[in-house]
Amino acid sequence: MLPESFRLVGWIGLAVLAWRWMMSGDWRRLAEPARLNLFLGATVTILALWQIRTGVRPGLSFHLYGISALTLMFGFWRATVAGVLILVANAAFGRGSWAGLGADALLLAALPAGLSWGVLGALERYLPKHFFVYVLGNGFFGAALAVAAIGLATTAVVAWSGAYTLDYLLSHYTPYASLLLSWAEAFSTGMAVTVMAVYRPQWLETFDDLKYLRDK
User: What is the pTM (predicted TM-score) of this model?
Assistant: First the structure.
C-alpha cells in the first residue's frame, strides 16, 4: 500500500534499530533460558492477540497491540524485537506485508515501545515511587498514549503517501484507532500489569518491589 520510498525508509530505520540493539548488548539477556522462555511466551501471546482484528479497508486494521506491556516486561529493545518478530509471523501467515515490514516495525513496534519507555522514565523522575503510580501511569496512561500515537502516526503516513485521503482517514479510521482503541489498550494492559506486579513481579523487569512497595 505504501510507495517504494516509504518502504525504503522503513527498512533503513529497521536496520538502524537492529544495529543499535546489537551494540546495546541487550540481546545478551536472552542467553538466560528463563528470560528467553518468558520472552518467547510473551511474544507468542501477543501474536495471538494480534489475530483478533477487524478493519475498514486494506491496510487499516484495528486490534490490541500489547507493546506497552512488553516494554514494561523487557524494556524498549526487546519489546521492539518482539514486535518485529510478531510482524514477521504475520507476514508469514499472509496477514502482513513483507515489503512493508520495515515501515510497520517503526510504526507498530518501535514507536509504541519508545513512548512507553519514555513515560516510564518520566514517571520515575517526576512522580513518587508508588505502586499505583507505576500501574496507572505506565499500564493505563502509557499504553493509551502509545496506541493513540500509532493511530495518529499511521494516519499521517498513509495520508502523506496518498493511499487514502486525509478526510477519509479522519472520518473512518483515526477516531477509532487513536481514541477508542487506546481505551481498550489501556484497560487490558493496566489489568495485565497489575496482575503481574502482584503475582509475578519477576516478569516485569521495570518493576522493583523495594522501590514501589516498601514502606508504602
Answer: 0.94
Q: Please report which residue ranges of the chain form alpha helices under DSSP H.
A: 4-24, 33-50, 67-74, 76-92, 101-105, 111-126, 131-132, 143-161, 166-172, 174-175, 181-199, 209-212
Residue indicated by cell numbers 544495529? 19
Q: What are the tens digits of pLDDT across the range 104-128?
A: 999 999 999 999 999 999 999 999 9
- Lookup: cell for 156: 499521517
The answer to whether 165 and 48 have CB atoms below 8 angstroms apart is: no
The predicted-structure confidence for 70-104, as pLDDT tens digits, reads as follows 999 999 999 999 999 999 999 999 888 899 999 99
Nearest in space to 190 (alpha carbons), one of 123, 120, 141, 140:
140
* Cα(212)–Cα(208) distance, integer angstroms: 6
